[in-house]
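Late entry, written up from scratch paper. The run itself happened at the end of the previous shift, but nothing got recorded in the book at the time, so transcribing now.
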Amino acid sequence: MAAFLTNPVLSGFHPDPSLCRAGNDLYLATSTFEWFPGVCVYHSRDFRNWRLCARPLDRRSLLDLLGVPCGGGVWAPALSWHDGYFWLVYTNMQHFEGSFKDARNFLICAPTIHGPWTEPVFLHASGFDPSLFHDADGRKYVLSQRWNPFKENPFDGILIQEYDARAHSLLGEPRLLFAGTELGVTEGPHLFRHRDWYFLVCAEGGTGWNHAVTVARCRSLEGRWEVHPENPVLTSAEDPEQPLQKAGHASFLQLPSGEWYLAHLCSRPMREGDRRLCPLGRETAVQRIEWGDDDWPRLVHGGRHPAVSVPAPELPPEEGTEIPERRPFTGDRLPGEFHSLRVPVSADWASLHHRNGWVRLFGGQSLCSPFRQSLLARRIQHFECHCATLMEFRPRDDSTAAGLVIYYNLRNWACLQVTADGGGSALLRLLRSENSHSPSVLAEEPLPGRKARLELRLLIAGGEVRFSSTPPDEEEPPREIGPALPFAHFSDDFVDGWGFTGVFAGICCQDLAGHRHPADFKWFDYCHS
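Output as recorded:
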């Protein structure tokens, strides 16, 4: 019986996939935007089971995200393997609202996917979505989107420029490689060779509902590019009923079995009236492709729409691994699926050593700050799931708070937190920020004593988010706090302007007076149906 893959292969916020092969080892890198560490790299040998294996941009010298806007940070990394090294190019987008895009593009290398990674080589700041192409003659080229804020269409084509790996610098001047098609919004370039052709793969149509994959080919890098006769090769733009929407931004790879696949981003919408909203963000799916007698790639299932069920490659299957539902905060490192916002995790604000078996968060800035928050969170990857944590916290006054948060960005979150009233007595409070810099109090109730030891929970089911709490080790059921919230509102499509990420759940601690008053957390649960 034929085996199949089910899309998305990486659920939840995993956009802009870049495929890479080193021998029999397969890698897939995705964007992380304002979340630290930067870039998630997954490993597989069967193209079915993907395990998080590396997060390369793990120190400030590689990635400075302090103050970047929501949706800024790491855009569209490109991972490759050549000359015995892994090569990673990436954008740090520091400003992108309005006409200007202030991006800085870098390159790092490592002998293994686990590092050590070199200090970054600055490439340029003339656009975003860079990638690195290793040609058969040993020459290397950097490709990137060109941004021109003074044109009616600022997406001004794809640039190419040679890179000298020994001198760690670009050579000559960039030149226009490809102007794009009538789909517009040309970005996300990847270049590869197959048979006697160079193939250029670009994202077009914008990263929303009209997203698409464009393929063009040429006999030489100086020649004229011929666009695929049935372009776009992949899109869901014409059919709003497709289960995988926003399909685009692809990366092609030939597997050790000889078969060809592409990885692409997609989203799975929820319905709210006439609106489609995608709280899990942009996810990663894969499609099998075949090469026709005319030397053009096409989806093996026909047409251009992404398939949910895809034939698996003829590779020996690996045993899958599930992340445990309960993650205790023990040992010297946090669980790998946790990220922080804009700043690296360090013992001065997230310590595993102050109290054995607990992580201590020292109070940081508010949940609206683009600078120094004390927040640890993981992706929500399912439409039905449950998150919980055990927290001990003694609020000093009403400027201190700690709790469990569901988080999209600085203006879109909800937090069940313990804080204090004006007299220092503990309170349990549900705060909600919905496209706002001024959150609303949805529920508030006193807690006995001045110190709280509580299990805080959030349940996502039936399109709703519900918060509850209970003292630990008690038989009574959790007590629901505040109203149910629409899960779909924590999404790219609901936020003011536009979003690029996805929803997270995690733990946080604030001290608005700057005294770094701490809270302790023993474990974090994530389970799904």
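The mean pLDDT is 95.
(Scratch paper discarded after transcription.)
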